Amino acid sequence: MSTLKDALNRVNPNSLADALRLLGFGSMLRALTTYLFGKLPVVGGPYVGALNPALVFAPDAKALSVVTAYAKAGTGTLGPLAASATTPPAAGKYFLTPTGDLVFAIADAWTSVDVTYIPQKGDVVELYLPVVANAAAIPAQYAALTLIECDAIAGLVVTPKVIDAPGTAVAAGQAALDLGKHNVEFNAADAVVQCRVKFLAVPAIDVDALLESTDTAIL
Predict the structure, then answer these.
(1) Planar angle of CA 16, 20, 23, nearest 5 degrees
(2) Is 193 within 8 Å of 155 (Cβ atoms)?
(3) Please, which residues have CB within 8 angstroms of residue 147's CB and are 6 or more apart in sequence?
(4) Which residues, 6 or more positions from 169, have their beta carbon under 8 angstroms from its beta carbon?
(5) What are phi and psi of 196, to 5 degrees?
(6) Domain residue spans of the chain
């Protein structure tokens, strides 16, 4: 029985546009392994930590994992960069932040970095949420994957928050998803009562299911 994958392989001009639209073709391309060349790290900003140079990727192109990182120009020793498990990273290393961005050592002062990475596929969602008992509940219709921005907009300390890994016991000035990724958690000292969050959620388009489907009208 013919599937949507089979229909795509036939490349019928009468149905190809509909098939690509059904699959969210642009989002599929965005989720492919990404190759960046000669990028200049700059100060990363409040969500990754304000002091270290970083490559901050587009909201729909955050890194799930890094394949390679290579420094071609800068103060430090040029060549392949190693992953760091902690931040700030030591010289010659990079840190993949919980937001899906890359942070580098200040001392290296890289001016040209090549990076190959696998993006986290997801739909970008931005919400304004109440915070109750230091946690903001993500509505049930969203399955959060990666928290990429978080601002306290009402409370004792009204600032952008540095994003920690899910399940972290957050310090003041920081925020993180809980381990189940159902809530955004804050430190009690910040006394946050309302926040703005931006996160990647499980995509509404299930590409795997669509490619195997046989009941679409465009086959």
Answers:
(1) 140
(2) yes
(3) 98, 99, 163, 166, 175, 176, 177, 184, 197, 198, 199
(4) none
(5) -110, 130
(6) 32-119, 123-201
**pLDDT digits over 57-113, tens only?**
999 999 999 999 999 999 999 999 999 999 999 999 999 999 999 999 999 999 999
- Number of Cβ within a 10 Å radius of residue 73: 13
Give the tens place of pLDDT for each residue, 150-159. Answer: 999 999 989 9
**3-state percent helix, strand, coil for the chain, nearest multiple of 5:** 15, 40, 45
Rounded to whole angstroms, how far apart are CA atoms 143 and 218?
A: 29
CA distance 18 to 190: 49
Edge-first strand order for the sheet with 174-177 is 135-137, 183-186, 174-177, 162-163
Apex 22 CA angle, 17 and 26, nearest 5: 75
Rounded to 5°, the CA angle 153-154-158 comes to 65
Beta strands in 56-164 (DSSP E): 63-73, 79-80, 82-83, 93-96, 102-104, 112-119, 123-130, 135-137, 144-155, 162-163
Distances (CA, A) of 100 to 13, 201, 204, 218: 37, 14, 20, 36
Backbone angles phi, psi at 133, to 5 degrees: 55, 45
